[in-house]
Amino acid sequence: MPAQEMGHCQPHEHVYIVETPALLTHPELRLTNLAASIEELKLYRIAGGTTLVDANPLATGRDALALQEASLTSGVKIISSTGYHIPVFYRPDHWIWTASEETLTDLFVRELTEGMFLGGCYQWPKYQTSIKAGLVKAMLTEEGVSGRTETLLRAAGQAAVIGKASLMLHTEYGKGALEAIELLRELGLAPDQILICHVDRQANDYRIHEKIADTGVFLEYDTITLFEFHDNEAEIQLLEHMLQRGYEKQLLLSTDPTADRLKSYGGSVGMDYLLTVFLPMLEDHGFSQKLLQTITRENPIRALCKRT
Hints:
CATH architecture: Alpha-Beta Barrel
Distance between the termini: 14 Å
Number of strands: 9
Radius of gyration: 18 Å
Strand content: 5-15%
Helix content: 25-40%
CATH superfamily: Metal-dependent hydrolases
């Protein structure tokens, strides 16, 4: 789509997940009702949402055909992910742990340039759609860049470079992010192609936020509505601090939802929470409309648009 059509964009959401091994032990991931997911997207659209990123990559319950249907029915533009996710989504014998770096790079590139595969949760994916992924998902555990995680990260990074796409990096409170950013830049990714997730799960020590921002990457603040980590006031204070330091063009906002927080799945918060509650709170704290437009509209364009 043309960049100007992106509108309000939340770059880390979860729309729909088919049955996976992870759902057996993590019921909050059970986003398995497509009709409910479409209703959630409609609420997001009514509130002013235009675009979002579905952050579940290949072989973790992502269903490209279902996401396409959800997008067409709701009117919300969905950018899908290739790449890999946290270990809970995979069985110990899953191919993600054994495939070579070159094989994984090729697979991720094919999803970006040809079309996403269906399945992959149990066996190597075989059926390929014509629906292309729009960015690469990668993750770090608390161990950081080492062992198999480094192999996976290198494959994801190389795929993003070849496919001229951005890379979204799951972190545990930002741990290991600086080392990962250095590796990704060595592979050829520009800083503004890298989105670091979940740094705001801790909103007390601002130093790690500043260190990550100083590399030029995007900081994706997606813990909004995850009140077990902190309340809205702490998130707002973090944003105010980062704005005072001049990082307004590197900030992104999202909700990273689970089933227990989506209205259409019986939750009380909803994917539209940013638009209906949090952004008005920011206005009440003195955030200008121009600044909010930068964070929710202009920054996602620069963070997610395909490189030429």
